[in-house]
Specification:
By secondary structure, this protein is of the alpha+beta class. 14% of the residues lie in helices and 33% in strands.
């Protein structure tokens, strides 16, 4: 069965409205209140001391994510995080965040909802932290599909 762009857009608008999202100009956006309800977030990276953070991101087949944007955010609250660092992975999927102060963070390894954000990341040692993560495909039609990456 073929789907026209207009039919897909109309269905997307209907689903977005039904899920409590606001549609503007054909692009669905969810309200912060709605996103907090359907996708509660917590810190996923909590070093107990200052550490050097490096890592590698791959998919389930071990293929590296090349030139993939990675963002470290200080976790202030579920609705508020502040960007600390932005880097990109290299051709082998490796990244280097440098020195990260102890605290509560959201380490976002995917810039979009095509892959699930890791729920908990741990260091392999205390001074030099290696974060090797496998990103798992994420269904893009879930309740939080219109929410921003948090």
């Amino acid at each position: 069965m073929k789907h026209t762009a207009a039919a897909v857009l109309a269905l997307s608008w209907f689903i977005s409205r039904a899920q409590g999202q606001v549609a503007e100009g054909g692009v669905s956006r969810a309200t912060p209140e709605y996103c907090s309800q359907v996708e509660p977030i917590h810190p996923n990276f909590t070093p107990a001391e200052d550490v050097l953070v490096r890592g590698r991101i791959t998919d389930q087949t071990t293929a590296p994510f090349q030139n993939f944007p990675i963002e470290l955010r200080r976790f202030i609250s579920e609705r508020k995080q502040g960007t600390v660092k932005k880097v990109s992975s290299d051709a082998d999927g490796k990244f280097d965040l440098g020195l990260v102060k102890h605290g509560n963070y959201r380490l976002l390894l995917s810039p979009h909802r095509g892959f699930k954000q890791p729920e908990k990341l741990a260091c392999s040692s205390t001074r030099d932290c290696t974060v090797d993560a496998v990103l798992i495909a994420n269904p893009t039609d879930g309740p939080a599909a219109g929410c921003p990456i948090r």
